[in-house]
TrEMBL record, chains A, B, C, D, E, F:
This is 3'->5' exoribonuclease Bsu YhaM. GO terms for molecular function: exonuclease activity. One of its GO terms (biological process) is rRNA 3'-end processing. Gene3D superfamilies: Hypothetical protein af1432. Keywords: Exonuclease, Hydrolase, Nuclease. Residues 163-280 form the HD domain. InterPro entries: HD/PDEase_dom, HD_domain, YhaM_exoribonuc/phosphodiest. It comes from Lentilactobacillus kosonis. Pfam families: HD.
Length: 320, 320, 320, 320, 320, 320
């Protein structure tokens, strides 16, 4: 397999195909324009500056473009950086496809669909089951494509479904280990809890917040979707089942400060919140440690209170 | 007019008709049962203990009953208290009606309805106007009967509508004084902001939280009501007008800590929040000062960070 | 099986044997002495007042005594309470043993020992394994008898080992589900994390904090134990393994505010903290819901930020 | 009317007269000196860099200078920026006056004086009235010239008086809408509440904090002024009126964290605080939205907890 | 010397003369009135209940009265309590004086005056010196009689001066140990910092907050006193010396949350704040430990974040 | 004595020998490499940029090198900065030694050792005395060389011992002024409290945190050292003396948020914490004021909640 961005070591000269994740025109202190770029392939991403960019360059090198890059892997303020030697569009006969350069969930979409199907099958309560099926039907396409976040964790194609599956697996173990948990409610809440992100976020590429995302947040978005689904399915708005399911999604951020209008008041709601945090934390820590040299400390992780993490010196690199 | 509860001075002997707001059976340290009571008339309420209550007494003296009370107005831990001399049910020929003993908003229901009608008329945006009319139609009866809260402020019959009207009046002044405010949005938000309380609370008497109130809160409740109303009226869920209106009600508690899933991000949403707090504060302070002797400090007000308030010594008593 | 305390319904008359968990002499407002008691059997505990206690009664009815109790199960301020009709010491020919009245972990001690042995066996790192074995050898007896806390959660005989086993089970699942976790470090940390409680607390009965517990806390206590163990075993104090293991136990409260001198900086340390909280939360919620009538809200749970919890109306009672 | 700074659209070439609000000498990464400038006219202000500034340029282009500017309106990090083509001092025969380039309150000074006179006239309590008149007499000139702040809100000439008038208008409406408010106390507090800023701040141009401002703050400054005024006017220091008025100004920041040594304990003090915040919030939001393209979100507003604000897409630009 | 209250051991029968510090009429659950009392002598104070008090008793046993008390020293909820056997007024021929029963500073007033004189003498800056002398002249009598607080620490006769002297002694040591400190400023600030308490509090007996105390606080009170003193002495209000001295007293609570409108911005102001806290902490801890049995933990100390303190088992009792 | 860095005034041309404290290679916006440098001598330190550095320069000018510097003292963003004219290595015949360029404690090491000896001599409790002597023996060399911190305060050679001595001096005064303090415990805690920094930090030059420092913190480090010392000395781990001494060091950060696993619960522990903060504050303030022009405000001090400090205009510069 060809060498990729994350394989480069400090001061290594290279040439390879990469995709431009970001290409922002800026003006240098000396008045000349340049492009602040992020290069990306499946292995990860690195920044670089394209100095003295002509207007033609600016038009040619936009986000999403695949380029042939010759350069050197250096460091700037302790972060890796590419010093660009030359950068060109590929020839027409070089058949390069976006899918080869984009980071994605470590499961195939079909496998994710199968696993979600399996868990839905185990939701034995009719109200929960019908609403979950209705909403997966309605938003299913986006559900398997979207990231789980704009950044921080699971911010890659399919990340939303992959994060959901991770939580479901944890939930299944909890149901096995502890008695007295309402499994259908927990599974239904787990599947739906972040589904509002398909409306909150713009999509898998160049992810931004939509107006609805900014003004309502994905908790109120999915809550309203559940309410509408119930109307469509003829489920009474004051049925206890419906109130409990709405509470599951509204409370899953755990704290009001984090945007939940009510804190968890059900055993299953508290567990859903805890598992959501646990999976997100593990993903953030694994990524941070994976990008850190053995024996050193990672950058500060915003989503974990700006802590730095380390690992044993003899540890191998981590997969996602 | 006959003497009322709030007219009594310390150590005054009296007899009068009052309503029992609360009558809880408890067991004294000596093992005998007694009734912890709250007596109520239009002027306010005072607690008292009915010692050595027989089972018959417990059955007879329940919340909502009107009684003839003979007693003395004393103090216990700096709070007024009634020492009960005797307490009897009224004779059959004494025609006493509940309405004469219950605290209510200082406006007649018809006047409140007229003022709400007037403000709805001035909501010139079609989306806002149709949704407001739809929801007032659906919940109008409760809207004019319910209190605005279980306790703290506007916790009396009609308090919800009266509080809404106070905010609307403030909003009208703000629209007059400052340019550039979207008046229809502000008015629509003001009318709807607390309407979810008709589902969150159980009703005007012996007010408690419903299951929906506990698990969802009145912000998510009214948000869902708006979403359903839009469906009924054929208004698209992704129309900008609808998103803004939903944001108005969801954000009106101002802080996430207070249950708003998003903080205000519209000029009108911030103003609505500010006016909501202003009106509630004024009501709480006026009540506290009204129950305090000139020159002294009130009890701690829970809803105002446990502050005590005072007033000039020469100040007259305050109306609601 | 004979009826137990938790089987009684409101206003039910009963007679049964119970153990006195607490028996405090107090003076009533009328100047007479009484005993504030907590009755206990394996099903749970209920309070009651023994009025007009003679000096002889005070001497006779002390904590730990088993009594024959005749009474009625009533309520006081929404909590169950026993109205005592009569209370006597058992006859000499009634062979009642403490073990039949004391709440304990829902696993037999031998089963817990076997499960701990199994996990220790899977700690393949020599440093961790030797230290864990050394300290289990040193504190093993207390480890399987002590509660995990003075109150709140796992506050019963064997609770410390049972809580530890629950966390280990969760940890094993996490190691299965996610790649890149240092399993021996996580398991060693899980087994040792609360072992300092055998020095922090006085024992399984009438549990209080020792002077060492008050002045040092169980985190610094177990940290020092690890340091001493390493000295005994000839493990260098500056070995990376030792530093990581000490960090696991010192950081497991997650936040400095909760007594960890350092926050978790290892993937495994953060996971240990999260699983510790998850297991404790589930235990507290299950207990609270188990003591609550279907459809109602539990008392406020101190260890969960004073939240109240509820469950579906149709839910069955929960086991521990 | 000639085109002004805020009329320029992105990439528009222009020439116009502007005033230099700021002109700071700095050294570029390449070692050459440049001037970091803020250009200003009545419409607003934009930054720009004057590269390779000679010592002569540095001496010539100082804050307060009016210049003839040729340039292009560009963007830098999402903020508007001027690319300077040339910059010259005006000819001697071009009669340009400072007043034409400086942002000021949207009321004429005479109108503001008349409105303040009117409200002072309505302060019917002799103590309040005499102190207010005394202090307006003493600090009146600065009161009508100073800004209300160094930045954030009302940070323009006459802003202090204009902000005061806005609060007085709100206060008058509150007195109309609610019974039981001590209007003279509220009005006197409103007029005086920020008058200490005439000593806390250096003046309307290049506003900085004075030593008294830094060490005492404007609350203690105006408090001391009131105390001295009372001495001059023969008002007893322990008169209730005086204590209440001092409390009004000392408590008007509402929270101790915001510098009020005591929180509001009078109905009127709490209202003054609320209206002060309301007017400042509205001003900050209107400015932020006015500088934001329809449909986008503003920069973070420091004075509003770093929130971003937006407005309806169809909204017109807002005046101050 | 006769036995005093603090000499009594649990269950000891006694008779002695004590003073009533508090005697509050209350009504028991059985409807009878009783007196909640606090007995006091120089050694300390203990509570007790006087049951079934007649109206005559209520009139006779008021705060400040000296009585002959026969009783038993018991415990209630872990606090010492007196069970009253009999209580009578002393005979006319028993010459008992208030001074023998009241706790006071452990220095004679004359000695405190001499020590304050000495420190004032060492304030070599004319501005500071003149203001300090002026204000000690004006408030000197109260300064040497008042407590330093209503409760918590130095809440005894002469406590204000004694606390001031303690801080001055610490300050002198700091000036000796560290170079570069403006000693006259530090000493002047130390002497004046709490002098406003002579206006904030009502006096040495039955200490309450005055209206000025509640509405202004002692920081703004002494600040205004300094301003008036400067006027009387012809010192310019904008002199740097005066601003620094005002800053010393205004900032001495250290944090805005604790009522300082500005935080310390002078070396001397920060030191004054630190020494003030240090002396108060030591006094609170010494009192708490002095009232605790060796080897046990004290009650929670409100002024020290509700911490409990302990001491070595072999420690002797502590003097003030 | 030759002119030093801190003697230079703005725009002064100079040549002198200095040491390079920092020399970091960076890349300028124009793509050329430069060295970001900090120059140091005994008087203090100033930054400067060495533009267009060749690879040879980068190799030659590393941290710790002494150079002959010709330049001009300028300002950049209100901070002093050196404009470099030329920079060369000294000739071989110029005998320059590191000690002449490094900031160190203002006491000679021998004097510090003598003063520590004296205080150890006064620790009359055998347990404390033996442990203190044992640990000073073990870590004494580092104790007298290390700084007390990586930055903030006492961050110079010998700073750890000097800071310890300052606290001991304060403690001695406290013992003199207040009765009832366990002096040996306080002195032992004072000597040991920061000794763990000899393991937490890497050393006096280019100080960084060690792995043990990051993962354990110096509180747990010294706690473990005490435990091991007790083992070596045959002192029982459960002796009260040992628990108290461990509590002294573990609690000396005062708040859990600052890394103390337990807050102070002994009079002596609280005093130690207070004196530690007091000495650190004074050092930080003196340094900040010493680097600030009379009449101006210092930079924000991180360790003092980002406050700025000022001093009287007529104040002289401060020594350390």
């Amino acid at each position: 397999m060809a060498k990729q961005l994350m394989d480069l070591v400090e001061n290594e000269d290279f040439e390879m195909f990469v995709m431009l994740k970001k290409a922002e025109k800026r003006v240098a202190k000396n008045g000349k324009q340049f492009l602040a770029m992020t290069f990306q392939d499946k292995s990860g991403e690195i920044n670089g500056m394209y100095w003295d960019a002509s207007d033609e360059d600016v038009a040619k090198f936009t986000a999403g473009t695949i380029v042939h890059l010759t350069g050197k892997r250096e460091s700037y303020l302790n972060s890796p950086q590419i010093k660009i030697v030359s950068m060109n569009l590929p020839n027409n006969d070089q058949h390069l496809v976006r899918e080869d350069f984009v980071q994605a969930a470590p499961m195939k979409e079909d496998d994710m669909k199968a696993e979600i199907d399996k868990i839905v099958f185990s939701i034995t309560n009719a109200t929960y089951s019908r609403i979950v099926r209705f909403l997966l039907q309605k938003h299913g396409e986006a559900f398997f494509e979207f990231p789980a976040a704009k950044s921080n964790h699971h911010d890659f194609e399919g990340g939303l479904a992959f994060h959901t599956i991770s939580i479901v697996r944890l939930a299944e173990h909890i149901v096995d280990q502890y008695s007295g948990i309402d499994a259908p409610l927990l599974y239904a809440g787990a599947v739906l809890h972040d589904l509002g992100k398909t409306i909150e976020l713009s999509g898998p590429i160049g992810t931004t917040y939509t107006l609805a995302g900014n003004l309502l947040g994905h908790l109120s978005i999915i809550d309203a979707e559940i309410v509408e689904a119930a109307d469509s399915l003829g489920i009474a708005q004051d049925s206890e089942d419906l109130l409990l399911l709405r509470h599951m999604v509204l409370s899953h951020h755990g704290l009001k400060e984090y945007g939940s209008p009510e804190r968890p008041q059900l055993l299953e709601a508290e567990i859903l919140h805890d598992l959501d945090e646990l999976d997100a934390s593990i993903m953030m820590m694994k990524r941070a440690i994976g990008q850190t040299k053995p024996g050193e400390f990672s950058d500060k992780i915003f989503g974990l209170d700006n802590r730095r993490f380390t690992a044993q010196q003899k540890r191998n690199n981590l997969d996602i």
